[in-house]
Amino acid sequence: MSSALQYPFTEPPAAGHRVQVAPGVYWLHFPLPFSLDHINLWLLEDGDGWTLVDTGFGSRATRDLWRAAFDSALDGRPIRRILVTHYHPDHIGQAAWLATHFQAPVWMTRGEWALTQRLQAASDQEVADGFRGLFGRHGLGEAELATLAGRGNGYRKVMPELPPTPVIIAEGDTVTINGDTWRVHIGRGHAPEHACLYRERDHLLISGDQVLPTISSNLTVRANLPDEDPVTEFVDSLRALRAALPADTLVLPAHGLPFRGLHQRIDDLCAHHDEQLDAAQAACDQRPLTAFDLLPVLFKRELDSHQLMFAMGESIAHLNCLHALGRVRREERDGCLYHIAV
Any transmembrane segments, and where (predicted)? Predict the structure, then answer.
């Protein structure tokens, strides 16, 4: 944990139980089957029921935990509305089931809904071709490509059904919950149109994955937009959030503990990506590199196949950013893109 941040809570609630973090705002903590082993969900009192922010991973274990939580965490009160911050399956995975169970509408941004639909509908072949086309051009070897391509549409496996067509929210919109006004702030880079929710009266931000206390969210390039620059989008949207919100904001992140120190954390995240860009450029100054060649520069740990997918996306993202800034140039050799410092 950063020593510059303040953590009002020292440990999360037990799985399926709630802890109050502010008037009318409660913290749920659900497990995830990854190295990032948990997600925080947020229950907001809403009349005789609840508004839920994010839903948990699309697995049977999560659904079983939810069933137990209906009486414990929810006190038998219904979920009246589901707000989804973004498309990742640990956030939207149970939205369809919960929406059906409670007859509750889902609210999310247009960009996240569009990507959710596209990813869920893609065939296994389309996903495999996307991996081969994008990562192959950036230097990933045939054995690794075959492993990733052989996984098929992993998104649909944990998102077998879509939630109902959502109520669309956008930057600057306000959502009234139990008489309180929550304003929508949009983050980009980690997701196309990530919704964060801010309550002005007590400086409370539900940040999703946009601002996390101990890690930087993955910034990945997708196969249908191979030249996008999520690093610049992420940093620019963080700086906009810093300018809009006060330093004493209590941040409720999707992973890790709630914290105060929003401005410092944003400064640290922006500095981290500046350092990654400098390291990548310096490496490309030594010899022409593909995104695959750059992995040991950006990631100091061994990567399994799941982590490799995210790491390749992030390596491409940082090289795309350097290219957009004119700090590297590209050369294509034998079907692969090499990057050379300018």
Answer: none
Mean pLDDT to the nearest integer, 139-145: 96
Which residues lie below 8 Å from residue 160, measured CB to CB, with a gap of 6+?
58
Q: What is the per-residue pLDDT across 201-214, written as a single tens digit (0 to 9) for each?
A: 999 999 999 999 99
Dihedral-angle region of residue 334 (phi above 0 means left; psi in -120 to 50 means alpha; beta otherwise): left
In the chain, what is the straight-line distance between the N-terminal and C-terminal CA atoms, in Å?
Answer: 36
Is the pTM of the predicted complex or chain greater than 0.90?
yes
Provide the pLDDT for residue 1. 43
Pairing mode, strands 106-109 and 79-83: parallel
Say which residues have a Cβ less than 8 Å from residue 313's Cβ, sequence separation at least 6. 218, 219, 220, 221, 222
| 311 alpha carbon, distance to own chain's centre | 14
Domain ranges of the chain: 19-122+151-270
Structure token pair of residue 277: 């860009």
